[in-house]
Design goal:
Keywords: ATP-binding, Nucleotide-binding, Transport. The protein contains eight helices and ten strands. It is an alpha/beta fold. The protein has a domain of 171 residues: 3-Layer(aba) Sandwich (Rossmann fold), CATH 3.40.50. Bound molecules: adenosine-5'-triphosphate (ATP). Adenosine-5'-triphosphate binds next to strand 1, strand 2 and helix 1.
């Protein structure tokens, strides 16, 4: 497999008030180039922690992460920041746009920061794809939630990252805007062979993916190719029943 992201025996524990919480309990996974993976599981199962450690936003307690041939634990903070900026795109539930900048400035910001100005033809193509050509001089507050998330996707795509990590990208959106955002992520994979890893609670959102990973208690308990929304809902429901049985 041409793996763009590889994680090996990843663990992450947190110590709060003398109590140890295990967020990831030894996760192995590989994500091939040009694939779209949804990460699901109950609240607290470790989804965001997996995304954050795989993306180099957080350091694991043990285990290793590779983006391409680069092993993240070998990088100091500066190199890690550069890797995130140049090779990874992020899309979050809360959009994380800069209110004082225009749509165009937001989209171009990561390129500006890295000094690698993106190819203007590529940027126009991305802007057109996300349907923002008429909105480039607007500020985020003048846009709807769905439009703001499309700006965030354009910003993530502008530097042509190898990987896009999305944490609940449709969590704050209505069904129509969510569908638009998911179609954009899908086409980044199908048309441009980018690699998307997306955390979601929504079986319909997960059905846009090629593969669904389900976490429970910091471990992968299902790894299923294209299960479809009904099968996903079933897997989550049976997991819920199991957890209720365990917790009594
Ligand atoms: N900074 C932190 N300090 C202490 N514990 C944390 C921290 N971040 C996460 N945890 C704990 O680690 C576990 C996994 O959290 P994580 O946010 O990865 O779960 P999640 O599956 O993304 O949950 P949700 O669906 O509710 O967002 C939880 O028990 C959580 O309380």
């Amino acid at each position: 497999m041409d793996a763009v992201i590889r994680i090996e025996q990843l663990t992450r524990t947190y110590a709060t008030d003398g109590q140890k919480v295990t967020a990831l309990a030894g996760v192995d996974a590989a994500f091939a180039r040009g694939t779209f993976t949804a990460v699901m599981g109950p609240s607290g199962s470790g989804k965001s922690t997996l995304l954050q450690t795989a993306a180099g936003l957080d350091r694991p307690s043990s285990g290793r992460v590779w983006i391409g041939d680069t092993e993240l634990s070998k990088l100091n903070e500066t190199k890690l920041t550069e890797l995130r900026r140049d090779r990874i795109g992020f899309v979050f539930q809360a959009f994380n746009l800069i209110g004082a900048l225009t749509v165009e400035e937001n989209i171009l910001l990561p390129g500006r920061l890295s000094g690698l100005l993106p190819d203007p033809r590529w940027v126009s193509e991305v802007v057109e794809r996300v349907g923002l050509t008429q909105r480039l001089q607007h500020r985020p507050a003048q846009l709807s939630g769905g439009q703001q998330q499309r700006v965030a996707i354009a910003r993530a795509l502008a530097v042509r990252p190898e990987v896009i990590f999305a944490d609940e990208p449709t969590g704050a959106l209505d069904t129509t805007s969510a569908g638009e955002v998911l179609s954009l992520l899908r086409s980044a994979v199908t048309d441009y062979r980018q690699t998307v890893v997306m955390v979601t609670h929504d079986p319909v959102a997960a059905s846009y993916a090629d593969r669904v990973l389900v976490l429970a208690d910091g471990r992968i308990v299902h790894d299923t190719p294209q299960p479809g929304a009904d099968r996903i809902a079933e897997m989550l429901a049976s997991l819920g029943r199991r957890l209720v049985a365990v917790e009594g």
